[in-house]
Specification:
heterodimer; A: 312 residues; alpha/beta; Rossmann fold; 2 domains; five-stranded parallel beta sheet; four-stranded parallel beta sheet; B: Urease, subunit C, domain 1; TIM Barrel; 19 strands
Chain lengths: 312, 440
């Protein structure tokens, strides 16, 4: 299929067919990752800028690895050493990048809409590496890749996402895509982190994890920002963990060989117990591997010229 | 001297609409009626029509100049956004002959000397009448009251910390009590900072979808409830700025039934845009209080029609292009309104039968004049000749070049609107004609 997007900002602009195309494109990429010689000439001469306004280890490293394997040059525009600290606006930073003729910008920013803002200014492609509480499309896509690999498909599969839904860009992007792919999604969390307005997503909302676990094919725990406790959104980490923490024992309630996912970094002993995180049901490390493959696929689709076969 | 012929006169003070002639002499309304050609010179006290300028106004509306009780003119201190000259020029271009300039400048208008500066700058500009609103508390700190009596002597017509809500209820109560000395209303910006919690749009499904931090409707409504109770207890005059929730409307309706001395305003953008219109790059729609739901809009309109809400006001809030060219959460709140507000209210509410034309003039001229004890708001003989001639057929595209305001942060930029003032007089002096401000 012909790739038609300059940017990847969110899941709501992608069709189910396009999502499946991304997953398909990522398959040979994963194979390349397992080779001893991980380097392709495909994107030689292309310049990818990593513009990260929020701290991130795995996402930035994942993108950088993906771009380098494809042969692109990468530049880290890291906030601590850039002119951003001198008060430069995002608009001026965008204009500077434009003037440098970069091919692709990967941006992470604490403001919702920052990626779309950049995409509107830049001729270069933009991949949203997470914007505020709005979207994190590459995380969702690597989750879909993992689910496809582990569950063999989406139709009728029960996916439970548990945690701080209100503040989670990962949950939002996952739900938008999973609905398109035909999965049956349930969101679980305390009312303060799963308020009524989340019903806009059009999926089941529940406060009771144990009630939702039976029949689940996959359970995804979200990272709990521990500082939310200080702002009163839940009374204690202890109570949160008791109500919504995932453990090996608790997961037995699904009655299935359920897989467990986490976007990382984990708070062990809070939203996920170590016995589960390190168990055979956990696919958390594979998510990281798949993340590189999916990001290779996306970078390739956006600036690699579209339809050609990357492996040849 | 002016003879405005056969205009469709809208004068809520006298409760009439119809085709009439309006005569203006020495800056005041001389007479309104249907006159024979030969009688007119005598009304002016002369033999002939020498020195009398005639305006053929058939098909156009004539009404008392609009009085906007809520504008931010940014001077002193933020003249990159606007100043009193550009703002008062924008005012007369938009049909406003009087404006109340809010105190959240740099420095805050909390002393008589500053009040007098604002008033003087308005006089120097010679456009719309500029009435200073002074702060309620020194430095907008919400702790100590300003010297209200001295400040009133300097020309302030109301007190407000608009831009910030006064969080301490006891300070607010004291303000109502002390302000009784002045007879001036306290204008309350109703916002509970803990509930608003640095949100950027109305909390609801739209904010959840966009991943933008939401401000619950209660952030406004609980303060409206608090302030009507405090004003009732203290016996002061309360005016509630920018009402945007249905709960606030309900509370104000009840307060009025209880006899509490409260008035309220609605901003046109809260009637015309809802939270559904907000998008991640629509910083032109980022405003505080945030755009409400459709249900709120219905309640606001109902409140305007049944007298719960007393006036329209723009909350004209200019910001530079660079300030708005930011990701939504980082852009400042505010919509530039003086030059578009009447046109859009006319186009979207009057023409569509939601708000009668005479009602609009009552809400935007007569009621503000009465509440804030200002001249104008009527065409009765002897009133100042603050007048607007309005052409409901006039179409104009809103562009940066055509605007008098220094800033262009309007959601209507680039759009064509219909229904504009074509002449504006302040004190009998023509200050705008053919959509252009007349320089001295």
């Amino acid at each position: 299929m012909q790739w038609r997007h300059k940017d990847l900002l969110d899941l709501d602009t992608l069709t189910a067919e396009e999502i499946r195309h991304i997953i398909k494109t990522a398959q040979p990429m994963k194979e390349i990752l397992s080779r001893p010689m991980k380097k392709l000439p495909t994107l030689r001469g292309k310049n990818v800028v990593l513009l990260f306004y929020e701290s991130s280890t795995r996402t930035r490293t994942s993108f950088e690895t993906a771009a380098k394997i494809l042969g692109a040059d990468t530049t880290n525009f890291s906030v601590a050493v850039s002119s951003v600290n001198k008060g430069e606006s995002l608009l001026d930073t965008a204009k500077t990048l434009q003037a440098m003729n970069v091919d692709l910008v990967i941006v992470r920013h604490s403001s919702s809409g920052a990626a779309e803002f950049l995409a509107n200014v830049l001729e270069a492609g933009v991949i949203n590496g997470g914007d505020g509480q709005h979207a994190h499309p590459t995380q969702a896509l690597l989750d879909f890749y993992t689910l496809q690999e582990k569950l063999g498909g989406f139709e009728g599969k029960k996916i439970v996402i548990v945690g701080d839904i209100l503040h989670s860009r990962v949950a939002r992007s996952n739900v938008l895509g999973l609905k398109k792919l035909g999965a049956d999604v349930t969101l679980v969390g305390p009312p303060t982190l799963l308020p009524d307005e989340m019903k806009y997503l059009g999926v089941k909302l529940s406060y009771d994890l144990d009630k939702e676990l039976p029949g689940a094919d996959a359970v995804m725990a979200l990272r709990l920002q521990l500082e939310r406790q200080q702002s009163g959104l839940f009374p204690s980490i202890r109570e949160y963990s008791k109500l919504y923490g995932l453990s090996l024992e608790r997961l037995k309630k699904t009655g299935k060989k359920t897989i467990v996912m986490h976007p990382g970094p984990m708070n062990r002993g809070v939203e996920i117990m170590s016995d589960l995180a390190d168990s055979v049901q956990s696919v958390i490390e594979e998510q990281v591997t798949n993340g590189v493959a999916v990001r290779m696929a996306l970078i390739y689709l956006l600036i690699g010229g579209g339809t050609g076969n990357v492996v040849d | 001297m002016w003879w405005i012929k056969k205009a469709l006169v809208l004068d809520p003070a006298q409760g009439y609409t119809g085709e009439r002639d309006v005569l203006v002499k020495d800056g005041f309304i001389l007479k309104v009626g249907n006159f024979l050609e030969e009688d007119v010179p005598e009304f002016f006290g002369q033999e002939n029509l020498e020195g009398v300028k005639i305006v053929e106004a058939a098909g156009k509306y004539l009404f008392p100049g609009l009085i906007d009780v809520h504008v931010h003119l940014r001077e002193p201190g933020q003249e990159d956004k606007e100043d009193i000259r550009s703002g008062s020029r924008a005012a007369v271009r938009g049909g406003f002959t009087s404006v109340l300039a809010m105190a959240n400048t740099k420095p805050v208008i909390d002393q008589r000397a500053l009040v007098e500066f604002v008033r003087l700058q308005g006089e120097r500009a010679g456009m719309a009448r500029v009435y200073p609103v002074a702060a309620v508390t020194k430095g907008f700190q919400g702790q100590e009251l300003v010297e209200m009596m001295d400040i009133r002597e300097g020309g302030a017509v109301a007190f407000s910390d608009d831009g910030l809500g006064i969080q301490n209820a006891e300070i607010m109560r004291l303000a109502f009590e002390y302000a009784k000395l002045t007879g001036c209303p306290i204008i309350s910006h109703c916002e509970d900072e803990n509930l608003a919690a640095r949100g950027v749009m109305r909390r609801g499904e739209a904010s959840a979808r966009l991943g933008l931090k939401g401000i619950p409707a209660s952030a406004e409504s609980v303060m409206v409830a608090r302030d009507v109770l405090l004003a009732g207890e203290a016996g002061g005059k309360l005016h509630i700025a920018h009402v945007s929730t249905k709960e606030s409307v309900m509370i104000i309706r009840t307060a009025k039934k209880l006899g509490i001395d409260v008035t309220a305003e609605v901003n046109p953008h809260h009637l015309l845009f809802s939270d559904q219109d907000v998008g991640l790059t629509r910083t032109d729609l980022k405003v505080n209080p945030p755009l409400p739901t459709k249900e709120d809009q219905e309640a606001l309109l109902e409140g305007l029609l049944d007298g719960t809400i007393d006036m329209l006001a723009t909350d004209h809030a200019p910001h530079t292009w660079e300030e708005k060219a930011k990701p939504f959460p980082e852009a400042p709140f505010g919509i530039n309104s003086l030059e578009t507000a009447l046109a859009v209210v006319w186009q979207e509410l009057v023409e569509k039968g939601k708000l009668p034309a005479l009602k609009v003039i009552e809400l935007w001229s007569r009621n503000p004049a009465q509440r804030f004890n200002l001249p104008g708001g009527t065409l009765e003989t002897g009133s100042p000749a603050d007048l607007v001639l309005f052409d409901p057929a006039y179409k104009e595209r809103i562009t940066a070049e055509s605007m008098e305001s220094k800033a262009q942060n309007t959601p209507f930029l680039g759009q064509e609107l219909q229904g504009f003032p074509v002449m504006t007089w302040v004190g009998g002096k023509l200050v705008m004609a053919d959509r252009k401000v007349i320089c001295n």
